[in-house]
Amino acid sequence: MGKGGEQGGDSGEPAAQIRFYTWEEIQKHNLRTDKWLVIERKVYNVTKWANRHPGGQRVISHCAGEDATDAFQAFHINPTLVQKFLKPLLIGELAPGEPSQDRDKNSQLVEDFRTLRKTAEDMNLFRASPLFFSLYLGHIIAMEVLAWLMVSYFGTGWITTLILACILTTSQAQAGWLQHDFGHLSVFKKSSWNHIVHKFVIGHLKGASANWWNHRHFQHHAKPNIFKKDPDVNMLHIFVLGDTQPVEYGKKKLKYLPYNHQHEYFFLTRIPLPFLMPCSHTLLIPLWSWLDPPRVPHPTLFPADCEGNSMQAPSLKIKLENFSQSAHYSQKFLMKLEVQGKKSKIAKSEHLLLFLESHWFVWVTQMNHIPMEIDSEKHRDWLSSQMAATCNIEQSFFNDWFTGHLNFQIEHHLFPTMPRHNFWKVKPLVKSLCAKYGVQYEEKPLGKAFVDIVGSLKKSGDLWLDAYLHK
């Protein structure tokens, strides 16, 4: 029960006394219209602020009624600056007798993880190398230029077509990993610079939406592999995942597709729909699609999002994003004109490029998550929740480059704003902490990771079939 005088709230007018709250009371405020969260024992009412949250209202809502200290530190590169937005929302503190962690979480594990993060900060592991990212962007641009030169000076024969497709596939895949770095604010010290370059890379080089990527991807990081919170495990009835969802579908006799064959039709998928339309998730469209629509439609064409919430009129930020995407597709159109002018077969390479790139993207992004635990919310601490949902792939120069360092998925999920070239440095510290508390740290070869995707889909499909037939 709260005690003392009111402080702060949405009005921003502090009172003389501090009000204290118990976890029992705080956990009641986890509704769509009533959201409280705790950061470093301070209680904030974020109900009205959620709709203005730069990372989207859903990601902050997913932490409502909980201790959000570690999530707050994970996503913000300048927590001190963000405090000025939190100050007017402050309504009190945890009562002196209340533990810092909710729901009987292991307080010592939580404290040790925060000590580990402080150690990583002292080691300057959150400081990016300008040379690394300059060279990385340079090798992407070099491949794009090389593709243009090939179109200009060659253009006949299937050998040229295949080479061009491979070059552009590699360029696009690596641009996808690079936009991921800027999206996580892991390159520049200032968020604004990260946002600007992110829009260029994902918009101009990829033709996708930075705002929509942020909206989805931060939810995934906040609650990985949690149904109704992680959009990446909402498969829109195309797949059933984990151990509980297949049984639930089977008991309800839901059969949108023959899920016992999902490990087979997984191979007949190609393009992740987050690049196509805003109401899609990690759904995949069929291999036989010959269409190449814009990866994200113009925002003004969609008056509401998937849940019926009104979308704002296009701001300057949206207009700049549209301009960048338009530049991307104008470049593709000009290349097509150049190709057609030489009566080349290279135009066919675009379909091969989409096929190769989308498979590259899907296999790499799913290898760390689909074989792991996928379930409903269990309110674990930050370390335990991330470890249950992620695994690593063995390190090598090729694996680092091929996966955009997503082979260090564990370290990336624990420290989303850490520059990827420092993951290998913090890895021993993470493994040591996991060993201390008996938390599983899973690492496997790249090939086995790919095989495990198929095996996991088959296991879930078999669970569905058994429940469908016998329960």
Automatic annotation (TrEMBL):
CDD domains: Delta6-FADS-like. Gene3D superfamilies: Cytochrome b5-like heme/steroid binding domain. It is found in: Membrane. InterPro entries: Cyt_B5-like_heme/steroid-bd (IPR001199), Cyt_B5-like_heme/steroid_sf (IPR036400), FA_desaturase_dom (IPR005804), Fatty_acid_desaturase (IPR012171). The keyword Transcription regulation does not apply. GO terms for biological process: unsaturated fatty acid biosynthetic process. One of its GO terms (molecular function) is oxidoreductase activity, acting on paired donors, with oxidation of a pair of donors resulting in the reduction of molecular oxygen to two molecules of water. The chain crosses the membrane at residues 124-142, 148-168. Keywords: Fatty acid biosynthesis, Fatty acid metabolism, Lipid biosynthesis, Lipid metabolism, Membrane, Oxidoreductase, Transmembrane, Transmembrane helix. It is a multi-pass membrane protein. GO terms for cellular component: membrane. Residues 18-95 form the Cytochrome b5 heme-binding domain. Its main location: membrane. Pathway: Lipid metabolism; polyunsaturated fatty acid biosynthesis. Belongs to the fatty acid desaturase type 1 family. This is FADS2 desaturase.
